[in-house]
Specification:
The chain has 16 helices and 8 strands. With 412 residues, it is α/β, with parallel strands linked by helices. The protein has 3 domains: 66 residues, no CATH class; 121 residues, no CATH class; 140 residues, Leucine-rich repeat, LRR (right-handed beta-alpha superhelix), CATH 3.80.10. An 8-stranded parallel beta sheet has the order 1-2-3-4-5-6-7-8. Helix 1 crosses helix 2, helix 10 packs parallel to helix 11 and helix 11 packs parallel to helix 12. The longest helix has 23 residues. 31% of the residues are buried.
Length: 412
């Protein structure tokens, strides 16, 4: 019997890699050119996925890899803080939503190629449900051309001409391709402009407004729409609100921190009777139309949360709101902080709250309401919360299982 003695005394068969391991390593090395995965047995798929580099092209991985562990590694490599709970608990959804949001934040109209965004659609359309874009950049501002003697504008003003050139990225084609989109949260402005501040960086133009109105109207899956800190005035608010009348899915509208006044607030009041809104936030505007909103609550049966803080609302609004609270059975939270309700307005609100059994939160801080009225309103709300808690614990709120029964049998 012949024996082969290795020249390396430390060599043994134990250190020879298995053929399957060599195949897996080869698949990983060549995955970008030849993405073999679903053809493998499950245990080998797991090994391949655990060693794939997280920077592979999305064109290769997006529609092929569902493994949450792989997408978690992709997210952690790119962003130091990842709140997966904000993205439905899905790491893959988190990756594509934040990746798309980043492209939109950096997009410069007239400079960035639109294909950088639209080419992502076939890869992310099934995973993006929410877009939160806290910065939308305007086009690069070019120096004005020198004017010759006698040049005059035929119509409009220089400001109008400047606004027409300052529109932002049109979201229509993108949103139309996101069949699962439920939340759209936008800010038309530059987040970190530093010492280069110009009002032109925070200009939500009429072109932007009409484009966005058409976009949200056509997005029938949209449940939450927020447009904040974008200098939205009365006319632009009304354009947006008209597009939302009778929207089939919208539940929350946030136009806080804008420039909405009386006419815009009246438009929002009309929306309450032509929508399924549960949450309306108009905080920190220049809203003098609180009476119209309060009057709409007399008949509204959907809204649960209303935020009108910081709008210089006064006693007449409190009077109508008191009447609405006496009959409304859906509102659970109201915020009237930082207004000018006054002592008499506080007393009237107390009368309305005394007849209301569903309101659970009422913020009246810094609204010139007396401490006595605020205390008594707080006591009424506490009683409502206790009653709601007891009702939630009552046996009538528990559904008994129903079993099938044949002829002659009864269900207890």
């Amino acid at each position: 019997m012949r024996r082969i003695i290795a020249e390396d005394t430390e060599w043994s068969l134990a250190i020879v890699p298995l053929l399957t391991e060599l195949c897996i390593q080869n698949i990983i090395r060549n995955f970008q050119e030849n993405p073999v995965l679903k053809q493998l047995p499950p245990e080998y798929q797991e090994k391949v996925l655990s060693h794939l580099p997280p920077d592979l092209p999305l064109a290769v991985t997006a529609n092929l890899i569902e493994d949450e562990g792989y997408w978690r590694r992709c997210c952690v490599q790119r962003w130091p803080v990842c709140h997966v709970a904000r993205h439905g608990g899905s790491w893959k959804r988190l990756f594509f939503e934040r990746h798309l949001e980043g492209l939109l934040r950096r997009f410069i109209p007239g400079t960035t190629d639109p294909c950088t965004v639209l080419d992502l659609l076939p890869l992310c359309r099934d995973f993006v449900r929410s877009l939160r874009v806290d910065q939308l950049l305007p086009p690069v501002r070019l120096p004005p051309a020198p004017r010759t003697t006698g040049d005059q504008l035929d119509s409009g003003s220089e400001g109008d001409a400047e606004e027409s050139r300052a529109y932002h990225y049109p979201l229509g084609p993108l949103v139309a391709g996101l069949s699962q989109l439920e939340e759209l949260d936008l800010v038309y402005g530059v987040k970190d402009c530093g010492m280069n501040f110009e009002w032109n960086l925070f200009l939500f133009t009429y072109h932007d407004c009409h484009s966005l109105a058409a976009t949200v109207k056509a997005c029938h899956t949209l449940k939450i729409f927020r447009l904040t800190r974008s200098r939205v005035d009365d006319e632009k608010a009304r354009i947006l609100i008209r597009s939302l009348l009778d929207h089939p899915a919208l539940e929350e509208l946030d136009l806080s921190h804008n420039l909405i006044k009386d006419r815009g607030a009246r438009g929002a009041a009309k929306l309450l009777s032509h929508s399924r809104l549960r949450v309306l936030n108009l905080a920190n505007n220049q809203d003098e139309g609180g009476q119209a909103l309060a009057h709409s609550l007399l008949t509204n049966t959907c809204l649960t949360t209303l935020h009108l803080g910081g709008n210089e609302l006064s006693e007449p609004t409190a009077t109508l709101l008191s009447q609405a609270l006496a009959v409304n059975t859906t509102l659970t939270s109201i915020n009237l902080s930082c207004n000018r309700i006054g002592p008499d307005g506080g007393k009237q609100l107390l009368e309305g709250v005394a007849d209301n059994k569903t309101l659970l939160e009422f913020d009246l801080r810094l609204s010139d309401v007396t401490q006595e009225s605020e205390y008594l309103i707080g006591q009424a709300l506490h009683a409502n919360r206790e009653a709601a808690h007891q009702q939630a614990l009552s046996p009538s709120h528990f559904v008994l299982p129903v079993t099938a029964s044949g002829p002659g049998n009864s269900v207890a």
